[in-house]
């Protein structure tokens, strides 16, 4: 490991949550106006999947309490739901970051311009599971509610940035880079908080906004 890399990782330690995106500066001027309709099938599927997500989280809570492990099949399912949600959010009104239609899958899609991964924890704290999902994460949820409206699909400051980006696309078909970097950073922060609050990691999310396409510890 180089000195520069080691220094970067000491300043920005690697998070178990990796949220990345590919900047596409030139996008359709008008497509964003109808993405609410184009994404409707995804919203319908995600509504059902998010119900399942909550049920799985409850089952995982008991599993962690008694075994200190998040069953891998349950972890992979909930990770898949979060991946799917991020792709749809990135395509539609969470970011408007791409015109590529998101795939209908829980699996990782490395070629899609929006990607999310969470490192699987071999063991989790039995004690933390009793308090992190409702007590320890509360300050983070308050911040997330202002940044992305309390979800990873869009709201708060992220929704305002997306609206401004849509207007910019309408007149210039260019996505302003500063708006883009901040928008992705907001969603990255929200993903870290959601992963912690959903019991998928014991690493407390830092009160830090890492903007841009890539995680700060990755090239």
Tell me what you see in this structure:
There is one protein chain. The protein is built from eight helices and two strands. It is mainly alpha-helical. The protein has one domain. The N terminus is likely disordered.
Properties at a glance:
219 residues, two-stranded antiparallel ribbon, mainly alpha, single chain, globular, disordered N terminus
Order of helices and strands: HEHHHEHHHH
**How many structural domains does the protein architecture include?**
1
Number of strands: 2
Percentage of residues in DSSP E strands: under 5%
Which helices and strands, and how do they pair?
Blueprint: H1 3-11, E1 17-21, H2 35-38, H3 40-67, H4 72-91, E2 114-118, H5 132-136, H6 138-148, H7 156-172, H8 177-197
Antiparallel strand pairs: 1-2
Helix pairs in contact: 3-4, 6-7, 6-8, 7-8
Describe what is shown at a glance.
With 219 residues, the protein is mainly alpha-helical.
């Amino acid at each position: 490991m180089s000195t520069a890399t080691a220094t970067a990782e000491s300043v920005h330690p690697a998070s178990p949550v990796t949220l990345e995106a590919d900047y596409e500066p030139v996008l359709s001027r008008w497509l964003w106006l109808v993405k609410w309709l184009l994404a409707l099938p995804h919203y319908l599927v995600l509504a059902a999947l998010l119900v399942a997500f909550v049920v799985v989280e409850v089952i995982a809570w008991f599993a962690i309490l008694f075994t200190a492990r998040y069953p891998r099949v349950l972890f992979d399912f909930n990770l898949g739901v979060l991946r799917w949600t991020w792709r749809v959010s990135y395509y539609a009104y969470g970011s408007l970051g791409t015109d590529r239609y998101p795939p209908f899958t829980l699996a990782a899609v490395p070629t899609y311009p929006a990607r999310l991964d969470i490192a699987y924890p071999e063991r989790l704290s039995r004690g933390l599971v009793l308090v992190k999902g409702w007590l320890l994460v509360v300050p983070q949820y308050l911040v997330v509610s202002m940044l992305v409206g309390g979800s990873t699909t869009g709201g708060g400051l992220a929704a305002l940035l997306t609206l401004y980006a849509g207007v910019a696309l309408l007149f210039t078909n260019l996505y302003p880079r500063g708006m883009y970097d901040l928008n992705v950073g907001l969603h990255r922060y929200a993903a870290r908080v959601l992963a912690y609050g959903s019991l998928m990691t014991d690493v407390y999310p830092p009160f830090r906004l890492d903007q841009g396409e890539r995680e700060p510890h990755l090239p």
